Fold this sequence. Notes:
The complex is a heterodimer of chains A (326) and B (306). Chain A is an all-alpha fold. Chain A has helices spanning 6-27, 31-56, 64-84, 98-120, 126-144, 171-194, 196-206, 208-213, 218-244, 254-267, 274-292, 296-310, 314-320; strands at residues 87-88, 92-93, 155-156, 246-247. In chain A, a hairpin with a 3-residue loop joins strand 1 (87-88) and strand 2 (92-93). Chain A is globular and about 55 Å long. Chain B has a two-stranded antiparallel ribbon with strand order 1-2. In chain B, helix 1 (3-34) packs antiparallel against helix 10 (240-265). The longest helix of chain B is centred in the first third of the chain and has 32 residues, at 3-34. Chain A binds chain B through residues 54, 60, 62, 119-120, 122-123, 125-127, 129-131, 133-135, 137-138, 141-142, 144-148, 254, 258, 261-262, 265, 269, 295-298, 300-302, 304-305, 308-309, and chain B through 31, 37, 84, 87, 93-95, 97-99, 101-106, 108-110, 112-113, 222, 226, 229-230, 232-233, 237, 276, 279-280, 282-284, 287-288, 290-291, 294-295, 298-300.
Amino acid sequence: MRKLSRESWINSVLVLLLALAPLCASLLDEPYYVSLASRVVIIAMAAVGLNLALGFGGLISFGHAAFFGLGGYVAGVAAYHAFDGSYFIGGIPGSDQMPVIWLVAVLVAGLAAAFIGVISLRTQGVYFIMITLAFAQMIYYFAISFPTYGGEDGLSIYVRNSLFSLDTSDPLIFFGICFFSLMLSIFFTRRLMGSRFGAALTMARLNEVRLATSGVEPFPIRLTAFVLSAMITSGAGALFADLNGFVSPSMLSWHHSGELMVIVILGGVGRLFGPVAGAVVFVLLETFIGGFTQHWQFFLGLILLSVVLFANGGLIGLLAGRSRHD
Amino acid sequence: MSIALVLEQLLNGVQLGVMLFTMASGLTLVFGVMGLINLSHGSLYMMGAFICAYVAGITGSFWVGLLAGALGAGVMGAIIELVVIRRLYDRDHLDQVLATFALILIFSEGTSWIFGASPLWLDMPDLLGGSVSLPGGVTYPLYRLMIILVGILIAIGLYLLISRTRIGMRIRAGENDREMIGALGVNISALYTFVFAVGAVLAGLAGSLLGVLQSVQVGMGEPMLILAFVVIVIGGIGSIKGALVGALLVGVVDTMGRIFLPSLFSLILDNADATSVGSALASMLIYLLMAVVLAVKPKGLFPANA
């Protein structure tokens, strides 16, 4: 048997704990903690998406909340039309079937990311950061000023959308769906980064000129990575809407983009399971410091500041040592 | 739709524009000289407004508050430069974004801890309470007119500071080649702290001046920060001239769009739809403007160091 590296060990323990915690909570009849675990898993999945662009591709997107929110809004709007039998613009009926919603969410976010990417990827560095931020703000303000879908107040999903014949309103079953999606997105990222495309993406980050010299144009590679990254994040957004039974413009806000980045960095940039570690720590901090004081973000700020200033490589980096490509 | 209304909105646009310039010039200076992307600039804007409202509440004088707001933000800026920011100059932009994002969290929560969650109010100084009649049949609030004047003075002052003084010469030299001016015996760390503090004073000034027109509350800096980002992306990051042109462009386009797009759409659509589509589009207008500018000129209108 192949000897597992230290990082793989940590990853396996992490996944095992994440899967077992809600099972235990469910046995102890604590549905709140099951939902909390679902929250961790969904946020981790959104961060896995961002990590593909930010970590592996070196594309510092400060606007991923846009894709997260788009996914959420697709779920919300579809459920809204399915609920009262009305039609979306152009006579498209709503739907309360998760697979349909996911497909639409991923397509919508993919199209949006292709549009945003084509313009933003012409630029680099700080420009890219600010432009992705600005585009996300644009979508945010669009959602706020559109009264049909709740405007600033957001949109409620009265009945959780369904998946085949599963009872999605059961917290544990819903957790299972989320967990499966997370694992799928990590598996996908892993296969992608192991492929020829992944090698090209890594090279686009490390040395663009060398990639171009070897006959691969960096732009389409980056654009594809950006679009795929947005798609994963939007899938997480659709699940998040279903978890809360609610979508609001705050899912699209730039604070959320910042938090997703924080999660990726906290866990460790460009590590497969970094976003998972980051999401666990983030949600735990939010829940437990938030239990003591409503000003928990003050302490989050202090922790984040010290991580940035003193601990490069994030949590997985702290535990598992430097990665090969640092 | 009368000419007077158009003129009035144009003035409102210019007023927003000069305040955006006051914000954006600090951001763009800090980026141009130190290569730092500073998200916490919006927090300095907020701090300025809070200090101004607090001091004005105690002393009863808006002018003392204004002075305190600008200086207080400047001192705050110098402190965070000394404690945090100066460790970030050699880091990549990702670290800078995260560290200054952390500063936003600390400032926002710290402020709501100290001042509570409810907004403070800043009263307009009596002297500027009225309005004036301008040619073209426009009556315009004196206070907003004063803001425009202050903005123009700041633009002139910055131009003179950068192009006519010794310290301005050093700033320009720092933009071109920071190792070289260090080798020539200029105290770079002091220069950096000075530039950062100047940006902070300007942000604090903008916050205090606009605090009268809106409520002084936690989170007021962030919309302003993002607008300022749009401004410097359009103008070219690092360029003061670009910031001025970008700010006026964004200010006027945003203000005009919000007023006139809904009525423009009511010509084609029925009224309720027109208002919602028009206002949705109006709020997206400056981002579309930015996208168009970038599609033509990826480094902004006036690329610095080009």
